[in-house]
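dumping this here so i dont lose it again. seq + smiles for magnesium ion
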Amino acid sequence: MAEENQALKEFTEKEYEYGWSIDIETDQLPKGLSEETVRAISFKKNEPEWLLEWRLKAFRYWLTLVEPEWAHVKYPKIDFQDIIYYSAPKKKVELGSLDEVDADMLETFKKLGISLEEQKRLMNVAGSNVAVDAVFDSVSVKTTFQETLRDKGIIFCSFSEAVQSHPELIKKYLGSVVPYTDNYYSALNSAVFSDGSFCFIPKGVRCPMELSTYFRINAMNTGQFERTLVVADEDSYCSYLEGCTAPQRDENQLHAAVVELVSMKGAEIKYSTVQNWYPGDKNGKGGIYNFVTKRGICAGAYSKISWTQVETGSAVTWKYPSCILKGDNSIGEFYSVAVTNNYQQADTGTKMIHLGKNTKSTIISKGISAGHSNNSYRGLVKIGKNATNARNFSQCDSLLLSSTSGAHTFPYIECGNKTAKVEHEATTSKVGEDQIFYCNQRGLDTEQAIGLIVNGYCKEVLNKLPMEFAVEAQKLLAVSLEGSVG
Amino acid sequence: MSLLTIKNLKARVEEKDILKGFNLTVNPGEVHAIMGPNGSGKSTLASVLAGNPNYEVTDGEVDFDGKDLLEMAPEERAREGLFLAFQYPIEIPGVSNVNFMKSAVAEVRKHRGLEPFDAKEFLAFMKEKKELVELSGSLAGRAVNEGFSGGEKKRNEIFQMAMLNPKLAILDETDSGLDIDALRIVASGVNKLRSKDNAFIIITHYQRLLDYIVPDFVHVLYNGKIVRSGTKELALELEEKGYDWIKEELAEA
Ligand SMILES: Nc1ncnc2c1ncn2[C@@H]1O[C@H](COP(=O)(O)OP(=O)(O)OP(=O)(O)O)[C@@H](O)[C@H]1O
Ligand SMILES: [Mg+2]
């Protein structure tokens, strides 16, 4: 028994593989947050007056708020004056040929283990099938396949670029799903966001490739506040993937993003995340605070939004990708795998707000906790009074890999319509020693065994990822859990 | 040289002594049947040989093909060619049999210095082994043992054994739960895999299996020790008379 535990322990103690940073000359604002900071960011980005005004309103509102404490996570108070709010690589990289890309930057992409596939695609522009926008610290550095997309009328570019080239769309949709008044971090983000991605799919168009963004925090003491906005016009479709990594640093770094999705009548948005921010070391030192607001609105009838997330990184995660099901017969889905190890804490889940008739939502959540970590599912299913025949099915499973880890489930249901049907199922299990031994007996070591068992456990969710990323997600799961059961 | 030599093996579980000085030698090419009343320690023996960490070895030596078996981690024992068909096979939800076997076969081949199969070779290899034990395609595609019937699980164990081609296979009551046809299929699979280089230890309660897989030796395990050894006639005698006469003889001695 003792030996087994030892093996399991070793398995989960593997270290973060993406913990490097690169010296790229950066153009930074000094640390600190004030109206001046907000103005400076807006100025650097050459923003229109209305956007600066919006940022300032958000900032002033933020000043009136106190940091929320309801989540099941603990972390020291964040000093918002000790953060750099804008950091951009000095060399602006334009798209087109790879030769123009800064060699260090390319090296960075190479080191983003998770983007190896992307790397290949970047190298071989012709054969590729994924359009990538990479957000490096605060600015977006590369968007591939602009032209292929432009032919279809699809807009996919950095947020700052969209502000310049499509201000009317930004003005119309920015803050329409997540207003700056929504919560503490969305207010902060609205004030200081530096870049992100924007995507617009016109009526009736099926986006022919995966759209993908990579986020990377590189510079020291920077916060990353990116803003993503995806609008799918009537009867259109797109699949969007975001991946994230950060260097290994002793201090904690803040990441507070806002993602807004708008799905019009008959449209579908599939949004997948593979989140691998630096989780901190074995003793819980360092790591990213990941406080993200993600929300989509199914604005039209028969529209659909599907969130799939594989969360293995960050020291503290606080994140609830949600759907507002406004259109009749609209569908919201949430598929999540959240893995925590060592001293990581995750409080994640979703909100499904049913407003339209015959709206349907599905929630599948798999929480896996190892080491001394804490993993909570928090979900709200709300059925509005006009949501006749609304349906929800929720399944929340927790898997414990150690006796020192915790799994918690906080499901909230508010039902305002008698015809609605809401089902909730939850299970908690431990990885069976007998399962591990069975695998051992077939020649697999304990590390491989846990990898297999966990992947099997998450299969329902992994199956929802775009094919080319499912394999990487599987590897990531195995790596994150190295050293864990006891 | 013998394949397996067990000397004075003592083992306990949960502070309780189960094996109390067990001796056995198995040579390549041999089939040994182990019989004995419920709770006598048969599965414990199988678990100890396979390296189940819940069982503590307190004394004795086990040599497996010239190596100290007790020094090895369970997965090393498997890679060295020791296979256990579990009395109660474990379910691994969501992991397909095909993937499971692909990983396992790759490990075993690596250990033997063989190149991994490519996808095509693997499928051909698997097809051949599936036919050997008449495992249906749908079972092979499903998650490992998940929702399998008792008999299907047993047959899946034999399929895995065929895939891994062990030097020594321990079959712990693989016959229980099998219908008559399945019993014949499993037995004929085992017979086809028998060679002069490998050996089998077959744990069973019933003579019936031994009609199909004819053992070279039959041993009776009682109270943690082998108390009688013989040839296949001993199994017939047990079938007829039960264990009481052995227990009585032991009591008198
Ligand atoms: N994990 C365990 N915890 C406690 N007792 C155990 C454990 N495993 C085995 N035992 C006990 O050890 C003894 C031998 O069990 P074992 O399973 O080896 O018997 P067996 O000969 O295989 O029996 P059967 O014919 O019923 O399969 C039994 O008394 C059993 O209750
Ligand atoms: Mg038994």
